Amino acid sequence: MQERTLDGFLTELSSGSPTPGGGGASAVCGAIAAALGSMVGNLTSGKKKYAEYQEEIEVAITKCAALVKEFEELGKKDEEVFEPLAKAYSIPKDQEGRDEILEKVLKEASTAPYEVIEKAYETALVLARLAVIGSRLAISDVGVAAAACETAAKGAAMNVYINTKSMKDRAFAEELNGKTDDLVEQTTEICDKIYKQVKDILIGR
Predict the structure, then answer these.
(1) How many structural domains is the chain composed of?
(2) Which of 63, 78, 127, 152 could form a disulfide with 112 if both were Cys (CB 3.0 to 4.6 A apart)?
(3) What is the tally of helices (H) and strands (E) in the chain?
């Protein structure tokens, strides 16, 4: 898949094309959150005031850089799994085997957004630590990252739910919905705590 500029992505996102859509946008939010985490780490690294955390900061920078790439790949994957889903929906309803094909691609289309939620949770854990050991000069960026991270998780969940809604295998659908609910709740709890923590620092509470 050809690499996009941000301007190109936004132009395509605002067009009548179904991809990129909410799934890709959620992955971008996750990538932004991780990139901001990496920035905070880089702004903290090497500073005498935070020398005791240097090793941990370096780990956070590496982790965030990897997460940015993983979010980018998941954005591409989300588009790739949508194509066969769109084709499956266009199969005549009375055609033999349609239900089986549709069920298969619905499950495949759920994988990318669920993985975005998993990566958002991983990102939230790194951000929670950066809120403690990161440079106070960049603390607002940790808050912005937390907000973007929460959006990534909640946004990706919408793409899980729209696929599970149409599944015939209700046991699978409900299990995936439950896992999604739990992971989004955990991610949201961490991100909300970070956001409040940063806000309190900034307004002097």
Answers:
(1) 1
(2) 78
(3) 6, 0
Domain that holds residue 168: 19-202
Average pLDDT for 92-115: 90
At 157, list the tokens.
């969940």
Report phi then psi at 3, rounded to 5: -70, 140
Quote the CA–CA distance of 176 and 170 in Å, as a whole number.
10
As a whole number, mean pLDDT of residues 109-129 equals 97
- C-alpha dist (Å) from residue 86 to 13, 21, 109, 159: 17, 13, 10, 14
What whole-number distance in Å separates Cα of residue 91 and Cα of residue 81? 16
- In sequence order, the 6+-apart residues with CB closer than 8 A to the CB of 27 are 71, 72, 74, 75, 78, 112, 116, 152, 156
Contacts of 22 (CB under 8 A, 6+ apart): 155, 158, 159
CATH number of the domain residue 100 falls in? 1.20.120.680
Q: For residue 180, is it within any domain?
A: yes
User: What is the model's pLDDT at position 73?
Assistant: 95
What pLDDT, on a 0 to 100 scale, did the predictor assign at position 1?
41
Percent of the chain with pLDDT over 90: 77
Looking at the domain assignment, is residue 198 inside a domain? yes
